[in-house]
Amino acid sequence: MSADLWCVVGLGNPGPQYAGNRHNLGQMVLDELARRTGATFSTHRTRNVVGEARLGVLPGGAPGPRVVLAKPTSYMNTSGGPVSALASYFGVPPERVVVVHDELDIPFGDVRLKIGGGEGGHNGLRDITKALGTKDYVRVRAGVGRPPGRMDTADFVLKDFSSTERKELPFLLDLAADAVEAVVTEGLVAAQNRIHARP
User: Is position 101 annotated as part of the catalytic site?
Assistant: First the structure.
């Protein structure tokens, strides 16, 4: 166990048919973090695909903390087992587990950070809370907004982003990746102050 090691988990569903869905936004952010760090994903005994890297730069210019980037290979609603197994395998406490996920209660394009609190009907988060035995892990909540009209929320999150959203998606992925980087290099409060203060 390393004192500066973090686990960063991107939620989604496995398989190419889900890859572009709103519900796979967490995994898209992990792909962006892997691109930034040069990490490559490979299968791991914890039922995740995992890549290891250093993320960001600390104040003073030293390389940022070591991170384990992980995408569960289970379905979204059963993310808890892989996340718990990952944290246990690497000896990382819940407060240094960062879960990146889509969030209906935040407008598309916005990102919010928190530790603990409710799951807001997000079954992936509910399963992680149950498996870790605590709500006290960091959430990077990437907004997808609410479904239009009377569309069912499950149908909405399992659809791909609209053509208009796809034009803006790179900015959202960039912001969410910046938010993860800020959490591990600056701490949650400083990261919240910076990310939430955006115009």
Answer: no
